[in-house]
Amino acid sequence: MVAIYYVLALMVWLFGAVFLLFLSLKTKYRRSIPARFFLYKNAKFAPSKVHFHACSFGEIQALKPILELFNDKAISVVTNTGYEAAKKITRNSRFLPFEIFIPFWLQKSKILVVFEAELWLMLVFWAKFQGSRVILINARISDRSYERYLKFAFFYRVIFKYIDRVYAQSQIDKERLSTLGAREILVCGNIKSAFLPKPSKIYEKPKERVIVLASTHEGEEAALLNGLNLGVNDKLIIAPRHPERFGEVANLAAKFATKGGLSFAKFSQSQNLGAQVNLIDSLGELVNIYAISDVVVLGGSFMPGIGGHNPIEAAQFEPVLISGKHIFNQKALFSLVSDVKFASADEVAKLINSELKRCKIMQKGDVSQIIEDIRSAYE
């Protein structure tokens, strides 16, 4: 099965190589695609005892408290933002290459720790071939994804043959993972609720009510701003999810401010929140903003297809929390937070000015077993 998969992956790469070269001309992929699909400036790791693999910025941030417990480590990622975050933790960070390159690239470690749904067959197979222990942590399967997983259950059963232990987010996840062939499954909750990110900077709480449109995606800002009327005692902060959209969202926010006779500023230029409408166009600021927020409108949930974002980071500060209804990727996390108001985009303006309870985190995850597992292999 592994040999057949490798040949198929090679054929896919040969077929798509030219397209990938053209795609790499885009700023968003200029670093990641050459590194992942052509090994350009993507050398092997320095030898390390533990290899952590995660996808992107959010996953690296969630893992950071565990990553910092181990000095002799390597980190592989998929996205540009994930790479930038990983490099701040260790210089021994790389983009994970496409499957066909793994056998020539992967360095042996004592343990490979894979985060959430990063199930790459050649990665786990080759790690086991080299003698590494392999564990999957924070594992989950959303309602929407489960049917797709089942269609390819034969493939996932092969993958799980090379994974020694799985740490699932919930009992439901455990049952679903078991049907796909996962072995030795332990439920320990969601890592993102066990290690809550703390503010890196402390901002003075404005006297106005602080309303945050957080982790928004294309189409959401326009939909949420439509009909939103800020009072004289309101301050609006917009924090788009993706850096490449900062310019686009700045234009939308500036037009909204001008129409309402409000002041507007980009945080990267002002370095403060003095304006009535503020765009957060710098990475790593969202938790700092959550800490002074009164109302958080959490994006990624008002348009179909994204599946929502982590509510725990905001909920730790107990604001009023409003989310869209499309949260299929984050149901497990939302179940841990009380008093979340779910609404469509056109209902948000009215909700913001109604009497709503502040949210609270009801249950946190326990990662002690994960840490002990890594330490046992590490030492």
TrEMBL record:
Keyword Membrane (UniProt): yes
Keywords: Cell membrane, Glycosyltransferase, Lipopolysaccharide biosynthesis, Membrane, Transferase, Transmembrane, Transmembrane helix
Gene Ontology annotations of biological process type: lipid A biosynthetic process; lipopolysaccharide core region biosynthetic process
Locations listed in the record: Cell membrane
Record's function text: Involved in lipopolysaccharide (LPS) biosynthesis. Catalyzes the transfer of 3-deoxy-D-manno-octulosonate (Kdo) residue(s) from CMP-Kdo to lipid IV(A), the tetraacyldisaccharide-1,4'-bisphosphate precursor of lipid A.
Lineage start: Bacteria, Pseudomonadati, Campylobacterota, Epsilonproteobacteria, Campylobacterales
Domain 3-deoxy-D-manno-octulosonic-acid transferase N-terminal: 33-193
Protein's recorded name: 3-deoxy-D-manno-octulosonic acid transferase
Domain of life, source organism: Bacteria
Record family assignment: Belongs to the glycosyltransferase group 1 family.
Catalysed reaction, written as an equation: lipid IVA (E. coli) + CMP-3-deoxy-beta-D-manno-octulosonate = alpha-Kdo-(2->6)-lipid IVA (E. coli) + CMP + H(+)
Gene designation per UniProt: kdtA
GO CC annotation, single: plasma membrane
